[in-house]
Design brief:
- The complex is a heterodimer of chains A (309) and B (357).
- Chain A has a domain of 213 residues: MetI-like (MetI-like fold, Orthogonal Bundle), CATH 1.10.3720.
- Chain A is built from 14 helices and two strands, in the order αααββααααααααααα.
- Chain A is globular and about 75 Å long.
- Chain A starts with a helix and ends in a 6-residue tail after the last helix.
- Chain A is an all-alpha fold and 309 residues long.
- In chain B, a hairpin with a 2-residue loop joins strand 4 and strand 5.
- The chains are: A mainly alpha (309), B alpha+beta (357).
- Chains A and B meet through helix 10 and helix 11 of A and helix 2 of B.
- Chain A: It is a multi-pass membrane protein.
- Chain A: It is found in: Cell membrane.
- Chain A: Pfam families: BPD_transp_1.
């Protein structure tokens, strides 16, 4: 009875025309999960599992005679937090990363702006030059820097020949050298990131500011710069993360004396064979990186929230 | 009083001349439109006046001063861009205040002038909104306020209404006209929309292929187009081929089996006669014979297509109850001599009119 009534009331309604088609995902609730399963599996196997294992390893203890002890304790963290040596290494790591980030922004953002205003074919050519460092193996590029920077290298010989300096400037095994080399490697990331945000900039906006009486420098500072802040920020995040965890460049230019977190972790793993301590350094580096990046991101986004929408 | 003078202004690009010896004088307080299809050189002309493009020849003087010698940020012109080009990271009030800041006007005066400008465009409640949170029409008004607040000697508007929907566009046309009357700024409007140009301007400058075709009031350009291009570009028109001949009774043009007196001085020989569809009526004698091919009811009016010996004609009659011919009926159409324009035959434009028909 009730069925008959309901079918009667349903019948006159031209259901196909009036009702919107039911969303497909209700019929196949598992499809999105199945489709993303390969990606999720890759993510889990290649990232989550090693990270978890590194973290667990950092909780183990180590002794020179007994090797890795299968105990769970926070001793490694306490050691690092208590020891001035580790403080110095971490401070140096983030000082270098911060300097590299600032230098990349200072050079990369204007570079991207100039590149955008270039005409082809110069634009493509110059872009290739900018991206060049990424095309060369990190080791040969860094060794090239070493040849250039060494006390008998081209830069020092040239400066001495010109009589500008009397004794060679030490680039090798100094923070300055590491910062210069890392900036060279990482500036393309900044250029690409700023480039992307420049693409969204209405070219007429600069003309509008000009027509209102702003000089070229004011146009830069008041109109262009605030709008490419998102690009500079995302570029800075990439550069900072890569600089803070860089290994090859600090290892070759910084040498064994000038240690950063990544080379420290390497040494703990492969020279001292203190795997738990190395893992602790790696975990702390990761945590510090995430905290600094997320913190800066929040800060800048709040300051320039209008351009981030 | 002559205010702005363009003298033989020319811009050449690699393989074509975008603006070809354009000369024009604009009176103070006038609203003048540069009208033409895309690529006719109207925007290039505007950009040269603004200083965003360098001219390859010619001069521009504003109030007696050489404008081309100044940098774009020293010309003191107000510009409203097609994309509005608002500063997205500033509020509406900050956008409007920018030009005043550049002129180092003190805070109190600046705030007052910004408030006045926003009130002028009807946005006094929206000062602290960011452009992204505003509709296209509102952004347009902010752009207008930003350009007007610096009291520009000349306001340039580059397709200002083309990004708005039809209803909004009509509203803004009236608004723009009201503002122009209120502030009395000399304005140059670039547009490809002939109805916009006619609704807003004191005079229209019709351009094609980098050259000026006609400078006239909207009514004159519409009623008495200088050539076939203008006739076709400004609304629908009928362009009929004919033969111009001089005689004792004055110049006449013969179109098929009808003869019309010609008022303007046109050289004898092949010519063309332009007459608007709404100016043609059905007459008993002295007109052009034809057959009604089609008649379409459009609410306020009827649209007829008449086949004549001189070609197909479009006729619009008001739906006012008067008797109208039926399809396939033999009729005779005519118009008052003052409602037509006669011009020398232009093979290129004749081709264009055939395409349009």
């Amino acid at each position: 009875m009730s069925m008959a009534a309901s079918s009667e009331t349903d019948a006159p309604v031209p259901a196909t025309a009036a009702a919107p088609p039911p969303p497909r995902r209700h019929r196949w609730p598992l499809v999105p999960y199945l489709l993303s399963a390969p990606g999720l599996a890759l993510f889990a196997v290649l990232l989550l599992v090693p990270l978890t294992m590194t973290f667990l390893l950092s909780l183990n203890s180590f002794s020179f005679y007994g090797g890795i002890q299968d105990v769970w304790q926070w001793g490694n963290y306490a050691d690092i937090i208590a020891d001035d040596y580790f403080h110095e290494v971490f401070l140096r790591t983030f000082r270098i990363a911060a300097l590299v980030t600032v230098l990349c922004a200072v050079f990369g953002a204007p570079e991207a702006y100039i590149l955008r205003r270039m005409k082809s074919p110069w634009r493509g050519l110059c872009l290739l030059v900018v991206l060049g460092p990424l095309l060369i193996s990190v080791v040969s590029r860094t060794l090239g820097w070493a040849l250039l920077f060494g006390s008998t290298g081209l830069v020092n010989q040239g400066l001495m020949a010109l009589g500008i300096i009397a004794t060679p400037i030490e680039f090798m095994y100094t923070e300055t050298g590491v910062v210069i080399a890392l900036t060279h490697v990482l500036v393309p990331f900044m250029v690409l990131s700023v480039w992307a945000s420049l693409q969204r900039l209405d070219p007429q906006v600069e003309n509008a500011a000009l027509s209102l009486g702003a000089g070229p420098l004011t146009v830069m500072r008041r109109v262009v710069l605030p709008q490419i802040i998102p690009g500079i920020l995302s570029g800075s995040i990439i550069v900072f993360a890569l600089a803070a965890s860089a290994f090859a460049t600090p290892a070759i230019i910084g040498g064994r004396r000038l240690k950063v977190a990544a080379t420290l972790a390497y040494d703990e793993f492969l020279n001292t064979l203190n795997w738990p301590l190395g893992a602790t350094v790696a975990v702390l580096l990761l945590v510090a990186n995430v905290v600094i990046i997320v913190g800066c991101n929040r800060l800048v986004e709040r300051r320039y929230k209008q351009v981030f929408e | 009083m002559t205010y702005l003078v363009l003298d033989q202004l020319t811009k050449r690009f690699a393989n074509w001349t975008a603006v070809d010896r354009v000369s024009l004088t604009v009176e103070k307080g006038e609203l003048i439109s540069l009208l033409g299809p895309s690529g006719c050189g109207k925007t290039t002309t505007l950009q040269m006046i603004a200083g965003f493009l360098d001219a390859d020849g010619g001069r521009v003087t504003l109030d007696g001063q050489d404008l081309l010698a100044k940098k774009p940020n020293e010309r003191g012109l107000g510009i409203v861009f097609q994309s509005y080009a608002l500063f997205p990271h500033m509020t509406a009030a900050e956008n409007v205040a920018f030009g005043l800041e550049m002129r180092r006007i003190n805070r109190a005066d600046r705030d007052r002038m910004v408030a006045d400008a926003l009130r002028l465009v009807g946005l006094d409640q929206y000062g602290d909104r960011h452009p992204r949170r505003m509709s296209g029409g509102q952004q347009q008004r902010v752009a207008l306020a930003r350009a007007l607040v610096i009291k520009p000697s000349l306001l340039l508007l580059d397709e200002p209404l083309s990004n708005l929907d039809a209803k909004m566009r009509e509203e803004m046309q009236i608004e723009l006209r009201r503002i122009q009357r209120t502030v009395g700024t000399t304005m140059i409007l670039v547009t490809h929309d002939q109805s916009e140009a006619m609704a807003l301007s004191d005079r229209v400058v019709v351009m094609n292929k980098g050259r000026i075709q006609q400078v006239a009031t909207p009514q004159d350009a519409y009623d008495r187009p200088a050539n076939a291009f203008v006739a076709n570009f400004l609304g629908r028109t009928n362009l009929l081929p004919g033969m111009v001949a001089g005689g004792p009774a004055g110049t006449t043009i013969t179109v098929a089996d009808s003869v019309w007196p010609v008022a303007e001085p046109v050289a004898p020989g092949p010519g063309a006669l332009a007459v608007r569809p709404e100016k043609i009526g059905f007459v008993d004698a002295g007109g052009l014979r034809g057959t009604v091919q089609a008649r379409v009811f459009q609410g306020t009016q009827w649209l007829f297509e008449i086949e004549t010996a001189a070609g197909r004609l479009m006729v619009i009659r008001q739906h006012d109850g008067s008797p109208l011919p039926a399809e396939q009926e033999r009729v005779m159409v005519g118009w008052r001599p003052q409602d037509m324009a006669v011009m020398p035959a232009d093979p290129e434009a004749a081709g264009a009119s055939r395409e349009a028909a």
